[in-house]
Amino acid sequence: MSVRVVARIRPLLKKELDKDVIVRAASTDEGKPFTIVKIPNPKNETEEFSYIFNSVYDQSCTQEDLFNAEVYPHIKALFQGLDVTIFAYGVTGTGKTHTMRGGMKMDDRGLIPRLLSNVFRRGKKIEKDSNGETTVDVHLSYYEIYNDKVYDLLEPPEMRTPMGLPLREKEGKTFVVGLTERPCDDVTDFERLYVEANNNRVTAATKLNAHSSRSHAILRVKVTQTTGDMVLESTASAIDLAGSEDNRRTDNNRDRMIESAAINKSLFVLSQCIDAISRGDKRIPYRESKMTRILSLGQNNGITIMILNLAPMRSYHLDTLSSLNVSSRAKRIEVREIENEVVYKQPHRSHSSTSFSGLTNGVLAPRQPLRPIGLGTQNSYTGSAPALARSSIDRAAASGAVIEKIEKPSKLFNVYADRASAHKATASMGGGSSSRLAGPPQANTSQIRQPLSLSGGLASRRSMTDTTPASSSSTETSALRSGLIGTGASKLARPTGLPLPGSVSAGVSRQNSSSSGSTQPPQQTSKSVDNTPILTLSAAQIEAMVEKKVAEILAARAAAAAALAPQTPTPSTPRSDNHHPPGSDQQRPKSSEPRISEEVQRRLEALERRIEEQSMSTSRSSSRGGRGGRDEKSAGLQLLLEARKAKEAGNLEEALGMYEDALGFFPGQRKLVGKIEKLKLKLGKISREDYEVGAQLRDEEAGSQQGNRVGSAIQQSRSASVTSGRRTAMTGISSTDAEVEDLDDDDMEADVEETPEEAEARRRRLLKSRGRSATLGVGISSKSRQQLHSNTTTDTGSDYDDRSASNSDPEQQSSSQEPSPRTKQLLDIVNSRDTELIKSLSGFGQKRAQDLVDHLDDTQGPSGKVRSLGELTTVPGVGVRTVERAYEGLAVAAELSSKLALKTYYDETETF
Ligand SMILES: Nc1ncnc2c1ncn2[C@@H]1O[C@H](COP(=O)(O)OP(=O)(O)OP(=O)(O)O)[C@@H](O)[C@H]1O
């Protein structure tokens, strides 16, 4: 089913009674519930846009009406094991907080308190009906995302660290690491916790000179039903998103602007995600903001309800149109209704693991493929021909609005009813939507729960009042499946209807070999569930195996070419080290060896996490200027983002101003200067000649800087301890520069469209500057090459041959000569078209890797290859500098990561 999107139009407040109301609710046929929002076309008030939603609530809708229609029907589903996500979206002041939290009076209570009291009521009923056999526990976590950082609201603001809590992806789901979870027994308990947490939010906001509504607030209600040793967990998440606002209108100061930029960025990314999903894009930009990572719209299973809050006044006209457009597209996102599984309590595992807590519960399942609902489900035009022609260029209409002449008969609207409206869900809109849950879930699997112990670091760092198990491994239990589909909580109250754990074990077949260790604590049992003998290993044996595996992984990472060479990689085939298709021979271990590998695998995962954490923290500590520096940098980056937004909205003057302001934070940043100059050129503020001269100078400067950087990078790599910033050590440039450039790359290249002549001029300049610096093929100066050659003690030296010195044309050079091993390694990684692998290259983030793969898919066909580094530099968005960084990173990364891995490994084994 798709995300359910409903709109709520708030009434006018007392102070607004004289305001002009322009938004209204309408229905397709008289007497039917409202499903349409109508708003005038700002360019032509004789026309109205119509947006269709699953349901629309007008000013007369009470808190109780909304709850009964939109949330109450899903409480049953929640207890059947489905996760439920409700989020309020809309412009500042449209009633999101009122909808979610509401007022203190009984009638004013919002969806959240009503949800909780109903959860407790149902929980008590289940306990009673089962004669106490089933217990229902509720745990709360509550956190906010402020300026793209995650803060726990259930702990006092003093406990906050500037960086906030980290997020982590595990097996396709996003978790907040170290989040507090509090048990909550009844409504009184909830109110105490909720009020306390909201006070924390306000206090923290005051300290930061912010306002609580400037953050996204996420409440997570975990419901755990336990009958004997069977446990069913599901989660309701209620999210009050921060409102978007126009900086000019609210006359924000700098701090507010940064805040707004962060909010707008995350909401902008959310709208980008919605667009990308609805277009069916391969790449969804979830990772570009924490909010979208957590929300994982379209990737989280269960039920998702988006409540679009609207203010009816004219003063909100454009903002309202914008949020109508975004939410209208959100209807096209499909979410799989998959119940969480009953799991069995397991003995405590002896190995340490990280505690995760997040929007989703601990169920770890692969992300579902995203599917847009067919285009036929979109809204369509019903306006007159001239109106259609006029409005076809109208952005609002283009994104899904329906225009009609005001006098158009309302029955015309049924031609653009979306698919969702044909579903049972929509048929029962406005109060009877519970029927949508009556159908059986599409799939159901069972899991064996893995109780987790907190990892030492996390346990001591964060106060965890509850150590509820979170991480699970996925196994399939057909017996359970047949026993539980569509039965929900009531089944739990009748445990005799379910197979006993023992018999379930016999039916368990492993789905994911890497997680099979969850079925048994290590070194305790002699037989696995599938009768595979398990070896009891000594620490020394495991150590030896880990060492071997570490070596293998490092070899695979740093010298991926070796692993790739014998294969012909399939385009876009994700790396999958451990997955075997169900039913394949490899699925079930044939001997004890796989069991050992699993043990090793777990250790390796822990090691990888440690390496990641170390490199994160070291890069943080080495970033320029400590906290103040970071704040400044982040302000600069926010300005860049704002500028990018302004540019995308076509406000080039405004964008230029913001880029110029950003330059104050990144003085002399070459690409930024280039961007400013390009915009000036475009706005006619400088002549083409001046622009060309400036560009030439920048190219020259870049050439000489590259030379210096390469030398210093290698110097650093030789002397770098494992605590030096990974990025800095690898590339020799500051993380600030790199971040600016990352941001740059997102928008700079595609920014001002080049004419063919400009492109040719740029190419000539590039080749000229490459020729001048006698490169290896990637724009490295001869001076730096000599430095590199003489300084390098690892494979960098031997890989780096001098043959290109006499050949300034990289393409010629690379086509006439055999590439060096490192060049080959780099090209092999690129040609693998595996974004994960490409991302491991220095200078390649998710976007660049994905763009590269997309480009290769588009231009090279399935088996074409990039044959030289020179050719690689011509790929849009890659460029000389990126290739350089990737090339150098290969050697330095190998050196650093082996040091890191060994250090981490020895740290780890001390406590083993
Ligand atoms: N349905 C409603 N009935 C009565 N009053 C409402 C309703 N919706 C909103 N309000 C009032 O409108 C004002 C703004 O609402 P609210 O603070 O909930 O907006 P918001 O969208 O959460 O804003 P922000 O994004 O700034 O947090 C509040 O005074 C609230 O009480």
TrEMBL record:
InterPro entries: Hlx-hairpin-Hlx_DNA-bd_motif (IPR003583), Kinesin-like_fam (IPR027640), Kinesin_motor_dom (IPR001752), Kinesin_motor_dom_sf (IPR036961), P-loop_NTPase (IPR027417), RuvA_2-like (IPR010994). Residues 426-532, 564-633, 698-763, 775-824 are annotated as: Disordered. CDD domains: KISc. Residues 576-613 have a biased composition (Basic and acidic residues). Residues 452-478, 503-528, 805-820 have a biased composition (Low complexity). GO terms for molecular function: hydrolase activity. It holds the Pfam family Kinesin. Residues 703-736, 781-797 have a biased composition (Polar residues). Signal peptide: none annotated. Residues 738-758 have a biased composition (Acidic residues). Keywords: ATP-binding, Coiled coil, Hydrolase, Isopeptide bond, Microtubule, Motor protein, Nucleotide-binding, Phosphoprotein. PROSITE patterns: KINESIN_MOTOR_2. ATP binds at G90, V91, T92, G93, T94, G95, K96, T97. Residues 2-333 form the Kinesin motor domain. Kinesin family member that is involved in spindle formation and the movements of chromosomes during mitosis and meiosis. Binds to microtubules and to DNA. Plays a role in congression of laterally attached chromosomes in NDC80-depleted cells. Belongs to the TRAFAC class myosin-kinesin ATPase superfamily. Kinesin family. This is Kinesin-like protein KIF22.
